[in-house]
Amino acid sequence: MRAVLWGGVIVAGLTAAQLAAAYPPTGSVQSDEVAALIESVRAATLRFEDVNVALTEGYIPDPSGECVTAAAHGMPAELGAMGIHYLRPDLLGLTVTAPRVDGTGTHTDFMNPAILLYEPQEDGSLMLVGVENLVFHKAWEAAGNGGPPTLAGRNWDYMVDDPTTPAEEAHHFEAHYDQHLWFRDNPNGNLEPFNPTVTCQHHKA
């Protein structure tokens, strides 16, 4: 049983093949609104192409050391990867890191994102390929919000783990909404969570 909401649609009880069919590649065509948004966010975060700048500004590598792929989280491998997450604990409002990460964060500003997404390169360097924001479900509701955040008309993805499955649907976080924004062209759509043009093949855990 999956307990994941993607693009406003709950995906539950589907096999990997059915999940792939539910999220077929849509091509690289995107609206002018999304294209303009991507370029503005890219310009605002250009300095983070140097991961050392990100470190000096308070981002830390995901303590799990994981380079996230769809396959590792029970999704079809053809959906691709997210890469390595670099987090700003203050923007996420992190309060607890075990047994699951939790916090009070309701930060939604993509010009100052809470999470940076890096793809490991063969030479050991990291390439900035996108950004992400994440708000915790309880904190978001406590702030008076009756529905998920939206970006360019798209509902953020709702992620919650299903303890009855071996997969880790919520990436070791408490229930939350998250939204990715890809600088690298994503055939699934540049606001979708996984990107098949991103790879973890050069990741050294």
Summarize the structure in short.
With 205 residues, the chain is α+β, with helices and mostly antiparallel strands. It has helices spanning 16-22, 32-44, 51-56, 89-92, 137-142, and strands spanning 4-6, 9-11, 60-61, 67-69, 81-87, 94-96, 102-103, 115-120, 126-136, 150-151, 154-155, 157-159, 176-182. The protein has one domain.
Q: Please compute the radius of gyration using only Cα atoms.
A: 16 Å
- Estimated share of beta-strand residues: 25-35%
Structural shape: globular
Can you summarize the main beta sheet? 9 strands, antiparallel
Tell me the structural class.
alpha+beta
Number of domains: 1
Total E-strand runs: 13
- State the share of residues found in helices, binned by percent: 10-25%
How would you characterize this protein structure?
The structure is a single chain. With 205 residues, this protein is an alpha+beta fold. It has one domain. The protein contains five helices and 13 strands. Strands 1, 2, 3, 4, 5, 8, 9, 12 and 13 form a nine-stranded antiparallel β-sheet that branches. A two-stranded antiparallel sheet has the order 6-7. The protein has a two-stranded antiparallel sheet with strand order 10-11. A hairpin with a 2-residue loop joins β10 (150-151) and β11. The longest helix has 13 residues, at 32-44. The chain is globular. The two termini are 29 Å apart. 37% of the residues are buried. Mean pLDDT is 87; it is low at 1-28.
